[in-house]
Amino acid sequence: MLINTTRQMKKKNIMLVTSTLKSLVSATKGDISAQTGLSLATCGTILNELCAEGEVIEESLDESRGGRPAKRYIYNSNYFNILSVYAEGTDDVGVISSSVTSADGKNIVEYNEIYNNLTIETLINHIQEVKDRHPNIKALGLGLPGILVDGKVLTCDITHFEGLNITELLNSQFSIFVQVGNDMNYTAFGFYRNNCRDINDPIAYIFMPPRHCAGCGIVISGKMLRGASQFAGEVSKLPFYDNLTTGKNTHPHHTPEFEKLLHITSSLIPIINPVTIAISGHNISQTCIDELSIELLKRFDSKHIPHFVYRDCIKADYHNGISEYTLDAYNNFRVFNR
User: Fold this and answer.
1) E strand or H helix at 24, and its extent?
2) What residue ranges are annotated as transmembrane (predicted)?
3) Tens of pLDDT along 198-213?
4) How high is the pLDDT of residue 254?
């Protein structure tokens, strides 16, 4: 038990050193020790191991002020690549979008393919083409518009994927680490990482696509809120939703999208009390969001109204969420399983 505990502690220290080095960009052993609280000896041992494996690169020595000059280190961004992929649309037409990022999370290149009749073979061929161009890809993150549990697609806007254990299938096909998730969870996570990284209060992200029902991703204390059966965020199942789709608007001058948005946010505020809600989608604009705040003030005290952020497109947030989440998961996997 003691050996196992010691080993686990060492792995955690490796993760701490690498994440600190990425944040500092370039650092000495002393810099990393000061940031992490680890001893100089521990930092030195870990850095030596990482340099031997090629994950960290030793730069030129710092100028000496008397005594031995300090070695300076940088993280090797080319150590591996992450591939993030998502598919959006219907069975018949849509887009497969891919983004390749470096080991330190920097975007390298993006590919977009318009498809007709999306099947699992179409997706596999797309991934294979990108992988052939970037043989250093070691991990794949896939986002889909549906409910996924333990790597299996339960429901999906692209019905050809329903019933597939897509994580197992892709892992077998490409022999790399595979992480699969819901589109809105990834999008909310990407927005959080770029805009609210140090905030522990709830963050929500609402997307209202033109052809499908609204969706919502939620991040609390830096963690995706998936729910007990991965059903959290399925706001189109709120009891008012179908009535708003088929019935008359409460306010004739409000669009159906606005009415849905008003009811969804009115539900989120008393349930999770979000500090920020990002909103994107069909017929949604900054003007619409400004009007939303005015309407919500008729229902809630101003202190409960979240900060609203308009997003004209979810693409950047979506890709960022897939790549960041997959990078975290892959780093954890490769460190604790090597």
Assistant:
1) helix 2-24
2) none
3) 899 999 999 998 877 8
4) 73
Q: Where does 175-255 have alpha helices with state H?
A: 183-195, 241-246
- CA 14 – CA 19 distance, rounded (Å): 9
Q: Count Cβ neighbours within 10 Å for each residue of 40-79 and write b for 16 or more, e otherwise.
A: eebbbbbbeebeeeebbbeeeeeeeeeeeebbbbbbbbeb
Among residues 131, 306, 132, 330, the alpha carbon closest in space to that of 206 is found at 306
Q: Listing from the earlier edge strand, what are the strands of the sheet with 107-116?
A: 107-116, 93-102, 81-89, 137-144, 177-182
Bridge pairing between strands 177-182 and 137-144? parallel
CA 223 – CA 287 distance, rounded (Å): 30
Give me the pLDDT at residue 326, please. 97
Q: Which residues of the chain have pLDDT under 50?
A: 1-3, 246-247, 249
DSSP 210: S
Residue 2 is predicted with a pLDDT of: 47
Orientation of helix 315-336 relative to helix 2-24, angle to 10°: 140
User: What pLDDT is stored for residue 239 in this prediction?
Assistant: 85
Q: How confident is the model at residue 212, as a pLDDT?
A: 74
3-class SS string, 32-72: HHHHHCCCHHHHHHHHHHHHHHCCEEECCCCCCCCCCCCCE
Q: What is the pLDDT of residue 242?
A: 65
pTM of the model: 0.90
66: tokens are 């008397």
Distance of CA 25 to the CA centre of its chain: 22
Q: What is the pLDDT of residue 64?
A: 56
**pLDDT score, position 236:** 87
The residues, any chain, with a CB within 8 Å of residue 270's CB and separated by 6 or more, are 300, 304
Cα gap 88→80, rounded to integer Å:
27
141: nearest Cα among 179, 108, 109, 106:
179
Give me the count of residues in the chain. 338
User: Phi then psi for 306, rounded to 5 degrees?
Assistant: -75, 165
End-to-end CA separation in angstroms for the chain: 19
Q: Residues 89, 158: contact at Cβ < 8 Å?
A: yes
Helix (H, G, I), strand (E, B) or coil at 290: helix
